[in-house]
Specification:
MetI-like fold
């Protein structure tokens, strides 16, 4: 008994370790998606609740904002937006010495104009000569930036970068690609388990053997067959029906095998009693098998949906990379090439792609666990 308790404690400790190992990067990705892009570029997500020292460049207003006051031409303004919360420590007028002056000191440019900057970013730039340039001079500042979070990253990603459309496209791919094989395999698994017909064992052996066939080997031959059928019936091979059938074909063997194992664990006495009462196979399937197999269906739904949602290869082969068809993983791959330095875009896009799988898993996790352990204990 003592050995069993120690083993149980170690297994729970190991499980807790893996849970933490999974939660930490997920939480970090979520925090990073809400951070300001400037802070995200210079500090990690674990510093999001602390004040960060930042070096930034701003440009003062030009000639259009000048006024004549006490014998000087003066330009007043603010480097920061309202309620930014930043506090300047030092500033400079050249990139060679960005910390040359502290706030409140007077800095002189080569044209003899002078500027002073206070702690909250308000500046006064004055000159004896009239300002003639539309753009003002640059200021280099070192400031303390408080923790800040924003939804601007989500607005840009969803509405400007095309992630929102890709999200809808992926939903249009994943849902049918999950439900179609789930419906087919439910009838298929029941037939392989409780119906007797010629070649049943051979068919089951073929299904098990097909599990070892690499998906990559069959992509091009299947696409070629789709093109031939598409040309025959005037339907494009690279389309939603094409990718639905591809996912169905690739997922049908595994879903059938898993569901058959669950159905086989159900008490045979129930089926025999139903047959004695005059129930057909169709009645047994609808009134007995389906209600008892909900945990198994939920498990298979989660596994198939996550595979379809996170798939990149099948989506690249069977869909065109146009805005109306491109899926999330392909869009993220595209952004990684074009916006690889914009961490706020990549982290936000990655977290958007995780939201639906997380929701599906947490919503159905109790069925998922029951489905995985079902049939493992007799009685």
């Amino acid at each position: 008994m003592k050995k069993f308790q120690i083993s149980s404690f170690l297994s729970q400790l190991l499980l807790l370790f893996f849970v933490i190992l999974w939660i930490i990067p997920t939480f970090g990705l979520f925090i990073s998606s809400l951070r300001d892009k400037d802070l995200l570029a210079i500090s990690g997500w674990w510093t999001s609740l602390t004040t960060t020292k930042v070096n930034e460049i701003y440009r003062m207003s030009g000639m259009t904002e000048q006024i004549f006051e006490d014998g000087f031409f003066v330009v007043r303004g603010s480097l920061f937006e309202d309620n930014s919360g930043k506090k300047i420590e030092t500033f400079g007028i050249t990139s060679k010495n960005i910390n040359e002056f502290v706030v409140g000191e007077i800095a002189s440019f080569k044209d003899n104009s002078q500027v002073t900057v206070n702690e909250v970013g308000e500046y006064i730039w004055k000159s004896e000569k009239e300002f003639t340039k539309k753009k003002g001079k640059r200021l280099f500042i070192t400031a303390l930036s408080p923790p800040s979070f924003t939804f601007d990253n989500y607005k840009e990603v969803l509405f400007k970068e095309g992630i929102g459309q890709a999200f809808l496209n992926t939903t249009a791919v994943a849902l049918p690609s999950t439900l179609i094989p789930l419906i087919i395999c439910s009838f298929f698994a029941y037939a392989l388990t409780w119906m007797k017909f010629f070649g049943r064992d051979t068919l089951l052996a073929v299904i098990i053997a097909s599990l070892v066939v690499p998906l990559q080997m069959s992509l091009i031959p299947i696409l070629t067959i789709y093109n031939d059928f598409g040309a025959l019936f005037g339907v494009a091979a690279k389309s939603y029906p094409g990718v639905w059938m591809a996912h169905t074909g690739f997922g049908l063997a595994s879903t059938t095998f898993l569901l058959r194992n669950f159905i086989k664990s159900l008490p045979i006495e129930m089926m025999e009693a139903a047959k004695v009462d005059g129930a057909s196979h169709y009645d047994i399937f609808l009134r007995i098998i389906l209600p008892l197999s909900i945990p198994a269906f939920a498990s298979i739904f989660i596994l198939q949906f996550l595979w379809c949602w996170n798939d990149l290869l099948v989506g690249l082969v069977f869909l065109d990379q146009v805005p109306s068809e491109i899926i999330l993983t392909a869009k993220l791959k595209e952004l990684l090439g074009s916006r690889g330095e914009n961490w706020e875009i990549l982290t936000t896009g990655a977290f958007v792609s995780m939201t639906v799988p997380l929701f599906i898993f947490f919503a159905l996790q109790r069925y998922f666990i029951r489905g995985l352990v079902a049939g493992s204990v007799k009685g």
